[in-house]
Amino acid sequence: MTAITYDSYGGPEVLSISEVERPQPADDQVSIRVQAAEACKSDTEMRSCSFSASWLSVPMRLVLGVRRPRRPVLGLYFAGVIEAVGADVTDFEVGDEVYGTTGLRLGSYGEHLVLPAKATIAPKPATMTFAEAAALPLGACNALNGLRRAQVGAGDTVLVNGAGGVIGAYGVQIARMLGAEVTGVDAAHKESFVRSMGATTFVDYQATDLATLDDRYDVIFDMVPSTPIRRMLALLGPDGRYVSGNPRFTTMLRASRLPLTDDRIQTATDGESRAAFTELAAMVDEGHLVGIVDRVLPMEQVAEAHRLVDTEQRLGAIVLAIGPDAEQRRASTTT
Predict the structure, then answer these.
(1) What does the angle CA 105 – CA 132 – CA 306 come to, to the nearest 5 degrees?
(2) Could you tell me which residue ranges the Enoyl reductase (ER) domain spans (predicted)?
């Protein structure tokens, strides 16, 4: 099968198109014909083995491979069609349209993907394209988990730091769905996009020092680990809650509920499950969430896809169309 592979850590140039052996499902597994895979920040960090949350560098290198990658095919998030099921599988049938995550098994940058039937896979939202569905789980699931931990409700004021990223943009949508008034923080060129997601107020962090803001917020959803947490906490009102979706190690310690920790601080680094993905699909099909896709690129342009993610030159997700009919599916996504 055709796949995007890499055999060393480095920049986008280490990625190439290769022919690799097609995986075969065991009795408790399913084979998925991948239609689309999100090129996400986690993919680019694993490609380079360099992580914005620096505390991850050592454990992830042990997982991925100390000197070179153990798994040559990247890819965490995908959408596709069940093409074969093992003898013991009862949850899925051939022809089911699904979306989900591979976890650290990786592999969604290839035409065929084999996963345990009990993996985090769910029916694809009926109203989404494969590209939109591939870009749903990372952003929407993390945002939903974080905002629920913060108990966002009607009338709350919510500040989303990094509102122009995929998780942040879904955070804006979900906070609005929960009845909150949302302020989005990001670079000026993302203002129209962030407002289109539902933010009523926008702050350009390059022109405005957040420390000078007069408003105080019930909830801060923070996707920017480089922003000093003390600056964020100073913006909380009475009984305010701070949630980091991309925490530093020190933030995780402060949220750990150990003695002397700060009970205002929480992290949103888990929450991916079949139940959560099924719930998100329902939210989409009921009209509460919309897809966030900047562009869909063919496999041959994977290096460009990773550059766009690395440099944040995007408004929404970058998605790879996987397989020989990718051009037709890219065309159907943009019409």
Answers:
(1) 60
(2) 10-320
